[in-house]
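User: two proteins, same treatment. go.

Assistant:
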Amino acid sequence: MNLPKFLLADNSNHPEDIFVLHTEYPRFLINLKDDEIEWFEDLSDENEQDLANELEGLIEAAGLFYDAEMEGLE
């Protein structure tokens, strides 16, 4: 199966939250309401500076993905 890089997720127990799931390495779920991130990978062996730079871009891309999806629904 070929998964998209990002997926929207929601949960009726958290109606105010906006979740985006990143499906490629490093996999994570971000709540755009408060930028809280749940990691699905062990990142302890990664170079911290390289990882920080990559993650900053991925988090920004998750927000842009959400904005584009919402524009498509209008």
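Protein 2:
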Amino acid sequence: MAKNNVGRNRLVVGAHYGLKDWMAQRLTAVVMAVYTFTLLISFLTGDNFSYEGWAQLFSQQWFKLFSLVTFAGLYYHAWVGMRDVWMDYIKPVGVRLALQAVTILWLIGCAAWTVQILWSV
């Protein structure tokens, strides 16, 4: 009897990133949208549009943490997207791994810079 490779019996190979990263990208997109909405409301209801006004907003601990969580979500969102681009379009394994490593290092650097900026206010 021939083995049927359809439905639940289908053989799936690969890294199995699918649903988990799809959900993570949707969640990080929602976090970024809520942050953008919060920033927009703060801007529209604020009366001090100078550097001091923005520094006052970003000096509050809750807003620093909200910003940090949002940027961490942005970096993860970017990582998933770029990893998929590299996996889909760069076929030589060595080049793909090098590009993934450069992407990871760049995003880690951006995350460190984000922390430095947020906690310097």
